[in-house]
Amino acid sequence: MSLEPDRALMSAADLTAELPPDDETQFVASAGASAAVAGQWTLMLWKFQRQKVAMASLVVVLLLYLVAVLAEFLAPYGVDMTRPQYTYAPPQGISLFATTADGGWQFLPHASGYRIVVDEVAMRRTFEIDPEKIIPIGLFVTGETYKFWGLFESNLHFIGPVNPADTVYLLGSDRIGRDVLSRLIYGTRISMSIGLVGVVISLALGVFLGGISGYYGGAIDTAIQRLVEVVSAMPTIPLWMGLAAAIPLTWPPALVYFTVTAIVSLLGWTSLAREVRGRFFALREEDFVTAARLDGSSEMRLIFRHMLPSITSHLLAMVTLAVPAMIIAETSLSFLGIGLKPPVVSWGVLLQDAQNLRAIANAPWLLFWPALAVMVSVLSFNFLGDGLRDAADPYDN
Amino acid sequence: MTTENHTVLEVRGLSVEFTLRGGVFTAARDVGFRLQAGRTLCLVGESGSGKSVTARAMMQLVDTPGRIAGGNIMLGSGETAVDIARLNPRGEAIRAIRGRRIGMIFQEPMSSLSPVHTIGAQIIEVLRLHLKMDRQQARTRTIELLRQVEIPDPERNIDRYTFEFSGGMRQRAMIAMALACNPEVLIADEPTTALDVTTQAEVLDLISRMQRELGMAMLLITHDMGVVAEVADDVAVMYRGRIVEKGPVDEVFHGARHPYTKRLLSSVLKLERTSERKQVRTTAAAPILSVRDLGKVYQPRKGFLGRTPKTEVKAVSGVSFDLMAGQSLGIVGESGSGKTTLGRLILRIVEPTEGAVIYRPPTGAPIDVRALDKQGLRNLHQQVRLIFQDPFASLNPRMTVRQIIADPLVVNRIATGAALDARVSELLSIVGLDPAVMERYPHAFSGGQRQRIGIARALALNPRVLIADEATSALDVSIRSQMLDLLLELQQQLGLSFLFISHDIGVVRYFCDRVAVMRRGRIVEIGPAETICTAPEHPYTKALISAVPHPDPRHKRMRLRTRLDA
Q: Mind listing the pLDDT tens digit for each residue in B245-271?
């Protein structure tokens, strides 16, 4: 079975020796070579890198997860450190230079201490920043002892007062004198991960049900689609409330946490399933899938080797866009008191403290910082997801 | 003739550039030509030669990131001449020209007409916009226009929607729209490429008649040398963004000077006869594949709330033929004739509802394809393979060439490891590709190269029969004849039998021993290729063959064609 490879081309090429040869067996040498052997992820990466906003959002998202991972180390205090004498203490600013005794300046990062003012009309103690009191702060200081991820003990903190006995509330304190910054950092861990865990469950359900719905079609498809419609027609908040009320109060916080996640994701899979079904429908008719079937591929191979890889990049984009919905859902549930409950700390739980007007009037930082955290994370996930979606099909041109 | 032939539009030194990542791509470079009243200039070239970009530039319709980088497009002459190249693409001035002084017909009548407005409303809009007619005048004029483009019953059809029209009717409506304001120049960008050959002949007839009647200058863009020979007065040949040759049609066809033109013409003329590679075969060949009364009937779904369902649709019915071992049988037909379905019925990608398919393997008993179970069908698919039409859709973009070609070998557990690599290399050399490219992904290849990869995949399992479904339709004409020669060579080397499905009579005559002509799901005529192509019996075949444009301006076949009143 030996054919001269070029014979079919020569007859045409002979005619026109002075013309550049037909493109048929000529390959672009160096310039296109890297693109020629670039797989879908490489092409997708190239396309993604061109989108500046999405790249910036990716950095923000990664930073948020870094905070979540290193929470114990980054937080100046433990999550339950209470100092009841500092109720609703306002945020202290950081200054880098301090006046010395002789009137000169020296480099001394510090926060200003508090002065207690008693409001005689309202019969209330309030705190004012006193620039005279200097509380030196530093990086990598020793402080409260903690167990990192419950694995090993350490007392090293990224930031905190140089003297562990001092109090520093960089973002203010709450009703019982807990440090908002520390709690926000610990809340990041829960809030950013509940989104992921929830999405993984939604993804599994969505891909599985959407996949068989799209691949088999017919009666199976009809049944699944009706289920999707019923689930998405349910009024979510009353349903959540009902399900959450069913969680026994005696359960440990971690178990409640996972149950809430499961509840949120049991309703969140429908849009994913619809999208996966649409993609499978379209793919099923593709020539290359028919070709693979004629090659003798089994159904499993067809789905997992030929069809699924074609939608993984789309799935990644869909998942990224689904995470912020989960974060919002967790926040609203916890805010309403039917999601996570103290002592678990999440952004939603933190916002519970900002539920009454008095707290907001006296301590707006209780509302501001958790809300900002939610917004930043949701926005960057959305921008990231949009960028991924645009890059998800690198073969459209 | 003498008074008519003044220049209406002149293009001088036109360049169109696209700013892309990593440089500027010049799609058209220093293009120049004249359009004269009452004459047709054909701009020919293969895909990517810059012919459509040139046409769009003349209406200032170049898509971003493209822009006109230089040159003039002078509409009119003397004092009143306008340089279109200098006009703002979004300005008032160019809009007064588009549709008013220059009419344009696009390739896809479905996507260039709005599906949510009636045909009439779209033409009336043009008239009211440009000629400031009132509603009643515009309607009367539209009916008149529809009558001119031979749309039957224009009073009724004016209020119909695009989807109610066939492809040919849509293109007629598009022509009516382009001609609504009596433009001085008509630009037709591949106006018949999406149409069947008999419809193409009708539409080309209509276009040239309208042009003569209205004395317009016409620019017709096409890749089909046959169409050029039939309708052109002058020809300009484009190659890689430049016009390499231009002149009166007869001079270009019979005295081509530029090597590219010569090559283009020779590959076209090659498809006007049977291949020399095809040897006259002895008649003793035995059938390898027999099809008897094969049919596919689509049962209508029951209507909602017991409404009477439509009648059943017979996509294919009563088809019988024998494919002889080592021979090629062509299946010719227009779109909707059921030829693609036929190919899929034989492989049972679509389940037949009636008839029988018998495959006779080299050893062993004949196989009744319709009775096969899953495993039996899988074995059959190793011996009877399909080559797809679209070289872009039929290769998984996420797999390397090695993975694509190796896939049938892997799933059928035929080869692994080094033996697999060796076989893939061998297959790549057989189809004329360098084995070193096997690590590349399909996007690194041109259409012709991809089709070769598809052929290599089909050959991987040592098949006996190949069903080629429009395997060369998506390719440029010069690549097309190379591909056919490759298939002929493979046929001789490997003793393959081909079922060659195509709408292109030339390709079938070049390639096939016998031809079956399909119409509305049935075979109307079957016989030796030469006989069918030169002396057809059935009136439909006659109409079909005579509608194929002949690439020689001295023998315009289309004008003398037989018409079939369906």
A: 988 988 888 888 888 888 888 888 877
CA distances from A221 to A215, A272, A281 (A): 8, 15, 11
The verdict on A396 touching B (C-beta cutoff 8 Å) is no
CA-based nearest distance B377→chain A, Å: 9
pTM of the model: 0.78
**Torsion angle of alpha carbons B138, B144, B150, B152, nearest 10°?**
80
d(CA B524, CA B397) in angstroms, rounded, equals 40
Six-digit token pair at A328? 């919002």
Averaged pLDDT for residues A27-56: 72
Taking alpha carbons only, the member of B179, B38, B159 closest to residue B105 is B179
For the sheet containing A124-148, what is the strand order? Answer: A94-99, A105-119, A124-148, A152-161
The amino acid sitting at A164 is P
Higher-confidence residue: A268 or A11? A268
* Distance (Å, whole) CA A345 – CA A67: 14
Number of H helices, E strands in chain A: 15, 4
Lookup result for tokens 């003397």: B78
Compute how many other C-beta atoms are within 10 angstroms of the C-beta atom of residue B271. 24
B382 inside 8 A of chain A by CB? yes
How many Å separate Cα A207 from the centre of its chain? 20
Tokens of B12: 């001088």
Residue owning tokens 């009516």: B176
Coil, strand or helix: which one is A94? Answer: strand
Specify the DSSP class assigned to residue B98. Answer: B
Q: Do A5 and B432 touch (CB under 8 A)?
A: yes
Chain A within 8 Å of B267 (Cβ-Cβ)? Answer: yes
Low-confidence ranges of chain B (pLDDT < 70): 1-5, 21-22, 276-284, 301-310, 557-560, 564-566
Whole-angstrom Cα distance, residue B386 to residue B116?
39
Between residues 287 and 346 of chain A, which touch chain B (CB distance below 8 Å)?
287-288, 290-298, 301, 306, 309-310
CB B514 within 8 A of CB A33: no
Q: Cα B519–B520–B526 angle (5° rounding)?
A: 30
pLDDT of B262 = 87
Dihedral sign for Cα A38, A44, A45, A49, please: positive
What does each C-alpha distance from A115 to A125, A165, B153 come to in angstroms?
Answer: 10, 17, 94
Q: How far, in Å, are A199, A308, B130, B197, B348 from residue A387 at the CA level?
A: 19, 21, 43, 45, 42
Ranges of beta strands (E only) in B504-558 are: 514-519, 522-528
Mean confidence (pLDDT) of chain B: 85
Q: A290 to chain B: which residues are within 8 Å by CB?
A: 349, 386, 388, 394
Distance CA(A325)–CA(A67), nearest Å, equals: 21
User: How close are the terminal C-alpha atoms of chain B, in Å?
Assistant: 37
Please say whether the beta carbons of B78 and B255 come within 8 A. no
Q: In which element (H, E) is residue A201 found?
A: helix A180-216
Going across the sheet that includes B242-248, the strands are B102-105, B185-189, B217-222, B40-44, B234-239, B242-248
Which of A7, A24, A290 comes nearest B448 by C-beta? A24
Dist CA B231 CA A254 (whole Å)? 80
B440 CB neighbours in chain A (<8 A) are 36-37
Highest mean pLDDT among A242-246, A343-347, A377-381, B304-308: A377-381
* Chain B residues in contact with A44 (beta carbon < 8 A): none
- Cα radius of gyration (chain B): 26
Strand order in the sheet with B7-20: B23-36, B7-20, B66-75, B82-83
Q: Are B193 and B221 in contact (CB under 8 A)?
A: no
Helix (DSSP H) and strand (DSSP E) numbers for chain B: 20, 20
Give the Cα separation of A105 and A87 in Å (integer). Answer: 33
